[in-house]
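Thread: quick sanity check before group meeting

JM: Hey all, I'm pulling together slides for Thursday and realized we never actually wrote out the predicted structure for the chain we discussed last week. Dropping the sequence here so it's in one place. If anyone has concerns about the input, flag it before I start.
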Amino acid sequence: MIRKFQTNDGLTLAFRDEGEGLPLLCLSGLTRNSLDFDYIAPHLSGVRMIRPDYRGRGESEWADPSTYTVAVESLDALALLDHLEVDSAAVLGTSRGGLIAMTLAATSKHRLLGVCLNDIGPVVERNGIEHIRSYIGKNPPPVSFHEIAKSLAELTRGFSNVPEDRWWQEAQRRFIVKSTGVFINYDPDLARIFDDPPEGASAVAPDLWPMFDALDGLPLALVRGVNSNILSASTAAEMRRRRPDLTHAEIPDRGHAPFLDEPESLDAIRTWLGRLA
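JM (edit): ok, ran it. Output follows.
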């Protein structure tokens, strides 16, 4: 069931809060929402899954596009924990959600019990960013919902051996149907995060390794799609070198990002949760 709360800047955001046990803050990818974790939810026990829709996504209110940043979304995550009176939580972060988790480790580590990163690390591959840039903020052409689901199977890079009904489920989570057509389930202005930087600003990607290193001492897991265009094998190897205790899984037939109900994903996440317990 969808619930609502207000952020520190007065925005109304949606979230789901289900289950009992270890608080598990589930943070989705850039254009995605809390429904992404529907696949894994039936497979976990002993956890309280707290799943927000970021500002401008899903059931949450749209905002000034200048606030669609990891820094602001990290503050929103803390505001949600405060609203629920949760002192600390584990974080399962997919892509953007993992960047938020690393930000929280660098700024509010005392609020974290552990972190599981789903197909994200401190180096985000340029070809993956360009792929996201190519589609973000664009509504689909006037075609049937069935055709949209079929196109997801054809256009989603790095995925194979995925049941046809999974793409139908994905279409239901990524798009909304209105009387006037089918639309993306987020604010199209989210695409403005890829606008050219202001004159004089650096276009060089920031060094995120210090943020990864800020996870030191927290139980850590990494799930990576073997065919990912966002998290390279070499970056994952360096993450493992820096954190030999990292619980790690490589997911075959998956790109960016695994659905998390794959057997390898579930094994890694359950092992990580066991360490937290």
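AS: nice. The mean pLDDT is 94. The CA atoms of residues 130 and 194 lie 9 Å apart.
JM: adding both to the slides.
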